[in-house]
Design goal:
Blueprint: E1 6-10, H1 16-29, E2 34-38, H2 48-51, E3 58-62, E4 69-70, H3 77-83, E5 88-89, H4 97-115, E6 121-125, H5 127-132, H6 138-146, E7 153-157, H7 163-168, E8 171-174, H8 181-184
Parallel strand pairs: 1-7, 1-8, 2-3, 2-6, 4-5, 6-7
């Protein structure tokens, strides 16, 4: 019963981080200690104002986002035109050095924490995207999460979960977009709903 599992929330639909926040609340309600580590995000989302002080058993850490990154090959021409002035594009295998440095600092601490008994639940929000962009060494990451403290429940969120991550996971949920007002009504992100 105390064996921690690996859960993955992935897919192009909305709700991956929201589901992870919900699981955090449930764990806190059961007296568990939670680490919520966000990759490729800075503390600019509405949930940060509540989560940072929600419980002495909850720690929120972000690994920042100095700028939005993407690979042009992942976008069609229309998407590229929309994002070209707001995004730094890079070629596969050559991510921005700033991102690599920032994430690697956080990973060193994470890998130590995974082996400890400090937290019952560790959520790695948007880690799937960081892995997809090669910001994280995949083999080193997988080795560390497989060799974590056996009692730690681990949640990995973000689009584009790698096949190797899906293979080792105990639970995988794919959020599928059926319809989104971003596309049908050309809406921007709304405070308190999307950010």
């Amino acid at each position: 019963m105390n064996q921690g599992k690996i859960q993955v929330y992935t897919g192009d639909g909305k709700g991956k981080t929201t589901a992870a926040i919900g699981l955090s609340i449930r764990a806190l309600g059961a007296g568990k200690k939670v680490l919520f580590l966000q990759f490729m995000k800075s503390k600019e989302y509405s949930e940060h104002s509540v989560l940072e002080n929600i419980s002495k058993n909850f720690k929120l850490q972000t690994l920042g986002k100095p700028f939005f990154i993407a690979r042009k090959e992942d976008m069609n021409n229309e998407e590229y035109e929309k994002w070209k002035d707001e995004c730094v594009f890079f070629e596969k295998g050559n991510p921005p050095a700033e991102y690599l440095e920032m994430i690697n600092k956080g990973l060193k601490e994470l890998y130590k924490t995974l082996k400890s008994e400090e937290y019952d639940l560790i959520i790695l929000d948007e880690v799937n995207v960081a892995l997809y962009f090669d910001l994280i060494n995949k083999d080193e990451f997988i080795n560390n999460i497989l060799n974590r403290n056996p009692g730690v429940e681990l949640v990995l969120t973000g689009r584009k979960a790698l096949p190797e991550i899906i293979e080792i996971a105990d639970l995988v949920t794919e959020m599928v977009e059926i319809k989104h007002y971003y596309n049908t009504q050309n809406l921007e992100a709304r405070k308190g709903i999307e950010n």
